[in-house]
Model the fold of this input.
Amino acid sequence: MFHIYCPHCCEYREEEEFHASGQAHIPRPLDPDACTDKEWGEFMYFRANPRGIHHELWVHGAGCRKYFNITRNTHTYEILEVYKVGEKPSIVANEAK
Amino acid sequence: MQHYSGFGLLKHSFSHHENWQRVWRNPTPKKKYDVIIVGGGGHGLATAYYLAKEFGVTNVAVIEKGFLGGGNTARNTTIVRSNYLWDEAAHLYEHSMKLWEGLSQDLNYNVMFSQRGCLNLGHTLQDMRDIERRVNANRLNGIDGEVLDAQQVKEIVPVLDCSDRARYPVMGASWQPRAGVARHDAVAWGFARGADTRGVDLIQQTEVEDLIIEDGTVVGVRTARYGEIRADRVGCVVAGNSSVLAKMGGFELPLESHPLQALVSEPIKPILDTVVMSNQVHGYASQSDKGDLVIGAGIDGYNGYGQRGSYSTIEHTIQAIVEMFPVFSRVRMNRQWGGIVDTCPDACPIISETPVKNLFFNCGWGTGGFKATPGSGHVFAASLAKGEMHPLAKPFSMFRFHNGALVDEHGAAGVAH
Amino acid sequence: MTQDLSKQSNRLQDGGRIDRSKPLTFTYNGKQYKGFEGDTLASALLANGIDIVGRSFKYSRPRGIVAAGAEEPNAIMQIGSTEATQIPNVRATQQSLYNGLVASTTNGWPNVDTDLMSWVGKIGGKMMPPGFYYKTFMYPKSMWETYESYIRKAAGLGRAPKENDPDIYDKMNQHCDVMIVGAGPAGLMAALTAARAGARVIIADEQNEFGGSLLSSTETLNGKPAAEWIAEVVEELSGFDDVLMLPNSQVNGYHDHNFLTIQQHCTDQFADRAPNGQIAQRLHRVRAKWVILATGAHERPLVYGNNDLPGCMVANAVSTYINRYGVAPGKDLVLMTSNDNAYRTALDWHDAGRNVVAIVDSRKNPQGTFVAAARERGISILVSSGVIEAHGSKRVTGVSIAPLNDAGDAIVGSVVKMMADTVATSGGWSPVIHLSCHTGARPVWNDDILGFTPGATVQKQLTAGAINGAFSTVQVLEEGLSAACDALAHLGLDKPDVALPEADVIEEGKAMALFHIPHTKPTSKAPKQFVDYQNDVTAAGIELACREGFESIEHVKRYTAMGFGTDQGKLGNINGMAIAAKMLKQTIPETGTTIFRPNYTPVTFGAIAGRDCGELFDPKRYTAMHAWHVERGAKFEDVGQWKRAWYYPQGNETMQDALNRECLATRESVGILDASTLGKIDIQGKDAREFLGRVYTNAWAKLAVGKCRYGLMCGEDGMVFDDGVTSCLAENHFLMTTTTGGAARVLSWLEIYHQTEWPEMEVYFTSVTDHWSTMTISGPNSRKLLEKITDFDVSKENFAYMDWKAMTVAGGIPARVFRISFTGELSFEINVQANYGLHVWKTLFEHGKEFNLTPYGTETMHILRAEKGFIIAGQDTDGSVHPFDLGMPWAVSMQKPFSFIGKRGMQREDCVRADRKQLVGLKTIDPNVVLPEGAQGVLDPKAPIPMPMVGHVTSSYWSANLKRSVAMGFVKGGLEKMGEKVFYPLADGRVIEAEICSPVFLDPKGERQNV
Done:
C-alpha cells in the first residue's frame, strides 16, 4: 500500500486517494490525421512497461483531482520522486544495454 | 513413460515407493534446437507437449528462469470456463475446454479438472442484458450456457445471499455447467512430464538474458548459465515478463503488467460447490478439494512486477465476498499472494508473429490465462511447428492494435477469470 | 479449590501466571471441564489430561498439542456456543479460556478418540504417498467426480456457521513514528527507549499479555523475576499519551511503504459473541515511519519416527505449559535436543517434581550452564544419541533411543527402549521472519544460528532480538535498545536516558545442525516421521518428491503440500528444506527458501471487511424526490450507485401493464421523469467552447448562448463511450450532461486531457450533478403544464426546440428549463436547485391532475426513446462501436480544424470495413412478438453450430403506442440491408424472424416535438 506525496497538496496521503493512470510522457500526436494506423496504434496501446524505473501518471482523485507524475520502481515499489505534469523526471532508467 | 494408475500405486506401495521414476530429466541443453520455448509455465509446457505429441517436433527446449510452473500457473485461482462473448475468443477458449475434458487421460496425470460449473452473477438490468447476449452467443457457438434467475441461482448455491438485503441484489446469472476448476500445479507437471518423455529438454533455473537476432531474424537465446543456445524458431511464453523479453527483441507490446492478488481461507468443510463470480460486486470464489475458499478480484491499478499488490484490494475483495456470502464472515483468511498479469487493452491475448522473424509471442492473457493453458499451448505449438499462425490464433495478432481489429472482452473478462 | 485441581490431573499445585482463585468451566466435545483464568484452551486441555485434540488430515492419526503459540499445527478447534457464533479452525494455543467456552474437535468419526477413518489411514496410507492423487482416480474418466466428492468430504477442518454473523468489526487508521511488533524483551526494551524519547509508538503482541519469552522462563532481570521488570515497563509505557499498547493483537501483514495490519481481538478472548454494543475485533491499519520487528523465534521440533503421537511436543512448549500455566503435560519426560537451550525444559520438568527419564543429546560433549545444572540435578544425559522412534497408540508410552554418529545421520550402535509418556524435542530456533518476507525480501540463511534471518529490504525496517538470531536475553535486550536508537536517529529524536536491565549470564555450548533423526530402517520403511503435521507430510514423502525430480523447494512444497496448512509451516518448513537439501546433496541455502505471505496467522473475514458490507457496501445515491417515488410505490433499479425509479405499478398491475399505461399517458397527455441522476458538469473558461469541440465528435464553434446541442463522446479509438446534451449558458459557460453511470468517467476524461495534453487552455470543470434536481415533463400537454407553474412565456415562438431559458417556477424558484426531448414529444427539462426539487415536483403534480400527469420511470423512458430510435450509451453501445456504426454520421463533423478525440481512431483500417456491425431497427414479422434483448441474429437459422452470427438485439420493447414490438440491434452491414430478414434462434427453440428497418419507429419527421 503506497504512501504517496501529492505535489499539489504537499502532503503524504494514502494510496486509496489516488488512481494510477498509466505510463507518463505519452504526448498525443499533434497531427493525428497525419499518423499511419501503426503510429496511431502505438500511441494508443503500446507501452514500455518496464521492470524497474517507470514514469507514470497518477491522479489525486479523492483529493485535489490533479494529475501528476511519479517515478517508481515497479519491482520494489519504491517511489523515487514525484513531479508535476510538464516537468521532467530527474531519475531515469539506466539504458546501458 | 511410467504409466500412472491406482494399480501402480498399489504395486509401488510394496516397495515403499522407492522405485518411482523421475517425472522429468534435468538435462544440460544442446547447442541447437528446432524450437526454443522461453518460459516453463503452464502455457510454455503445454506448447512443448503438443509440439512433440501432435506436431512431431521433439528437438525442443523449454528454458525457465525459475522452476517449472512457478509463475502465474502457481498463483492463479484455477477457474476454467469458455463462456466468452466474441466468436474469436469463444472459439479459442472452447478449443481449450475440449482439451481440458480429456486432459488427465491424455497426460496420464490427474489434473483434477472438476466440472462443477460456473455462475457469473448479474446484479443490474444491464448485467442481465449482457448475460443474455453472451449466453445466446455461447449457445450458437456450441458452448453450453443458460440464463438463470435469482431463484435458480439460490438453488445451486444455497449460501449465496440472493435476498434484497444485499446492496446489489442478485438478479440472475449465466451458468456454464462444463466450467470448473483444476489443480494448477498438476497441469504444469503433467505437461512437463509428457513433454520430457517425448524428448523435450526442460531447462530450469536458467534465465534468458538476451535474444540473439541476426538480420532481423531470431537465431537463439543467450543465457547466463549456459551461454548461447541456438534455435530455428523461438516462442516466448513469459507471462509477467513479456514486455521485458520484447524489449530484448527491440519492440514494445501493447501490454501493462499489473499485480493480481488472490487469497485462500483456512480449509473448511464443503460449503461451496461451484465457482461464483460477480463483476458488479467485484469478487469471485470457489472451494478447493482441500476445503479452502479460493478467492480473487480485480487487478491493482498500477504497473507492478513485485508479485504483490495493495491491501485495499484485498479489503475490497473480502468485502465483496462477505457481502455475497454473509455466512463466511467468521471464516478466516489464511494466505494471500500476488501474480503479475500482462493485461491487453482488449482483455484478449496476443498469440502472434512479431517484428522479428521467427520470433513468436504468446502473452497478454491478463487475468484469465490458466483456463486457456491447453488450448493456448496447442495453437501456439501448431503455429511454431508451421511457422504460420494457427487459424484460432490469427485474430490475436499483436498487429490488431494497429489496424483496430480488437476483440473487446472486457465485459466477459471483467474482474474475473 | 483442591477438588478442581484434582480433576485437572496435570495441573501443578502452584506456579504459573494463572489465577487459581478464578476457576472457569468450559465444554470440550460435549463434556465439561475446568480451567483457570489465564489459561489458554490448550493449557486447560492439557491440565485436564486431554491427549487427542484432532485427527490428521490424510491418515486420520491421533494428534495432540505440540506447541504453545501461533505455530501449533494440531489443536485446531471449532469454537462457538450457538449456530451464528461458530468459529472454525481456532488454534487452542491462541484462544484464551473463558467461562462457557464451547469447543470441539474438527475431525474424527464417530469421535476423535475412536476414529474409524484411522483404519483407512492405516491400511490405505501406504497407497497415499505425496501426490498420489495425481497418479490415480483417472480411470474410468467418468468416475472422477465420484472420487472427488469423497476427497472433498474428507478435507476441510472446521465449518462455517449457517447463520449470519451477529458481531461488529471495525477499523482504525493509525500513524506512528515507531511500530514495534512483538512485546518480548526486545520489543519492550525498544518501546521503552522510543517512548522515553517522545516518539509516537505502537507496540502490538499476539499474546494476551506483554512479555513474550520472559513469561514462560525462570530468568531474572536486575536480580528479580523477569515478570517484575515486565510489569514496570508496561506500567511506564501506559503512562505515555503517545504510546498505544495492543495485546491480543496480531500483526498479520507488512505491506509496502511501511503499512501494517493488526488484528486486535477485542472480545473473542472472553466470548464467542461480542457483548451488546462492543466491537468483536478491530483491524488497525498502521502507517509507520519506522518498524521494529521483534518477533522472536519458534523452536523447531526434531523429526523422528511416530513423532506425531500425543505426548510428543516442542521442548519450549513444555516449559511454557509448566512455567506460565502451571501444567505439566505428563509424568515421565524424555528430552531430545541438539542444543543447550532446550535443557531448560528438563530442568523445568524436574523442578516441577516430575521425572526426567533422560536427556538425549545428539552432541558428543555438551557443556554449558544448563548442561551443568542438569548434571547437578542428577538427570541422566545420553550423549551422541537420538530418539529414533516414539511408541504408543494414542499417547507416547516409550521411546527407542540409538547412538548416532558425529554428523547425526547414521545409527552407530544398538537401540535401547525407555518408558516415557512425553517426548520433548528441540532442533534449535527458527527466527520469526514472516513479516519481513511480506514485502518481497528474501531471507538469508545463517549458519551460526542454523536458521533464516531477514533479508535486505527497501522498507524502513529494523529488527531486534531472536529474529536476528540473538537468543540470549542479554543480547536480545541490547538489540532492542539499539534498534530503538537507530529509529530515533532516523527520526531526528535524541536518545533518552535508558539503562539495560541486568540479565542472567548463561554460557551455551555450540548447537548441532540436526533436523531429521535417522532410523534403523531407511526412511521409506521407517515409521512415519512427520515434518508438517497438519498436512501429513513425512520425511519419506519429501525424499520421494526429490527422487521423482521435484528439486526446487517450491516444487517439494507444492508436491507434498508442506507448509500449506493454517500454521503455514512455522514448525516444519526448515526441517523439510533440510531433508530435501540432504536428499539433493545441497546446502539448505542452495535448496532455496520459501517465501512467507500474509497473513502471519489467519484473520477473520469479518474483520477485514469491517463495516463495509450490506448498507455500507457501496453508497446509495438518492434524488431529492426519492421519498415521493417510494411513497408512490415505485420499483427501483440500480444505475451506478443511484437508485432510480424503474416503474410505478398501481394496484394489481403487472410491470407491462404499468409500462403501457405510463407510455400511453405520456404520448397522449404528459408524463414526468425524475432525471436528476444524469451527470452534470459545469464548464467555464475562455477556451471552454474549443475544448468541447475537441472532446465531442460534432461542431461547437457556433452554438449560441441559450442553445443546446447533443454530442457523442469517443475514445481515441473512435468508439463511443458517452453522450449527452450540452448547453451554452453564456459565452464562456456551458453545462454538459452525461449518462447517469458515466458521469465520473467523463469528468476524469475532461480533466486528464486538460491537465496533461492541453494545460494551456483556460477551462474549468465542476461536477454539479448533485446540485440540481431535474424533472422532465414530456407529452403534448407539457407546455400547458409548464405554463401553470411559471409566468415566463414558454410559447413555441419564445421558447424554441433545443433552447434553454432561465425562469422562475413554482412560486419564484429559479430554474433552468431546457426544451430538449428524449421521447420525441414536446418536452421540457426543468432544473432547480436540488433543495427545491421535491417542492417543484409536488407543485407540478398539483397542477398536473387535469392533464393526468403520470410519473414514469426509466423503463418507460427506455421504451419511448426506442420508439424514436434514440440510443442509450452503454446499452446500445459496448465500447466497440463508433458513431458511423450507430448510423449517426450527423453527429460527427469531420471538417473541424482540430482533430477531435476519436476522429483518427474511427478511420483505422478495421473501422471502415463495410461489413461492420451497424445499429438498425428490427421489426418482428409477428408484431406481437417482442425480441429478447441479447438475442443473437443469424442470416441462416438452419446453419450448423457454430452458427455465423451477425449481431445482437440491444434494445427491445412492447410499444403500447404503436401496438407492436420495437427493437434495435446490430447487424453486420445492416445499414445497407434495409428490408432484409434476420433470424433470432432462442434458447427455448423458437426462431424469431425480423426485418431490418430504420430505428425510428414513431414520427420520423419529428413533428411531435416541433409544436
Remarks:
- Chain B touches chain A at residues 241, 243-244, 247, 252-257, 301-306, 308, 310-312, 345, 401-404 (CB under 8 Å).
